[in-house]
Amino acid sequence: MIATNPAAFRAALPDGGRLIGLDVGTRTIGTALCDAGWTIASPASLVRRTKFSADRAGLEALMTEQQVAGIVIGLPLNLDGSDSPRTQSIRAFARNMADARPILLWDERWSTQAVTRTLIEADASRARRAELVDKLAASYILQGAIDALAGL
Fold first, then answer.
1. What is the pLDDT along the chain (152 residues), one digit of tens a residue?
2. What is d(CA 38, CA 57) in angstroms, rounded to the nearest whole number?
3. How far apart are alpha carbons 41 and 103 in whole angstroms?
4. Neighbours of 116 (CB within 10 A)
5. Is 129 exposed, middle or buried (0-12, 13-18, 19+ CB in 10 A)?
6. What angle do the packed helices 52-65 and 85-97 form, to 10 degrees?
């Protein structure tokens, strides 16, 4: 099940449970996890992308280990809210993961910029920013989603 509506996603998870947030890039996948009560998201790990089957196996191992009930994937829309070529690849990624757990596609238009700005303000070096930005973006995406879910 793939949803863009938080209410439909919440209905697919009536008992709550841990969620994983994914910031899917072309070279890496940033991950974040939240608690079962959906209160706070924390950066987790960075998956270096290879082939989809290997990427999925790594994510599946993490989701099983952390007892993840649902997946929130950042959806990179254009500024006007329309789909972009990158959006289509994320939708394809979600379709390929859909049999694992319920998925919520979450608007991530400003996540990377917000996280990068915060890291610059914290005086993080370029190398350190490159290392952290995808995990923190995943956390930003997941936090936005769980804040919306908490209001339902």
1. 999 999 999 999 988 899 999 999 888 899 999 999 899 999 998 889 999 999 999 999 999 999 999 999 999 988 788 888 889 999 999 999 988 799 999 988 767 776 666 667 776 676 665 666 678 888 989 999 999 998 77
2. 25
3. 16
4. 17
5. middle
6. 60
Q: Can you tell me the distance from the alpha carbon of 152 to that of 142, in angstroms, rounded to the nearest whole number?
A: 16
Cα–Cα separations (whole angstroms), residue 104 to 10, 14, 54, 71, 122: 9, 14, 22, 6, 31
One of 3.40.50.1980, 3.40.50.720, 3.30.230.70, 3.30.420.140 is the CATH number of 2-150, namely 3.30.420.140
The model carries a pTM of 0.86
Tokens of 77: 């829309």
For the chain, the structural domain boundaries read 2-150
Task: With residue 72 as reference, give the H or E element that holds it.
Answer: strand 68-75
Region for 99 from its dihedrals, namely left if φ exceeds 0, alpha if ψ lies in -120 to 50, beta otherwise: alpha
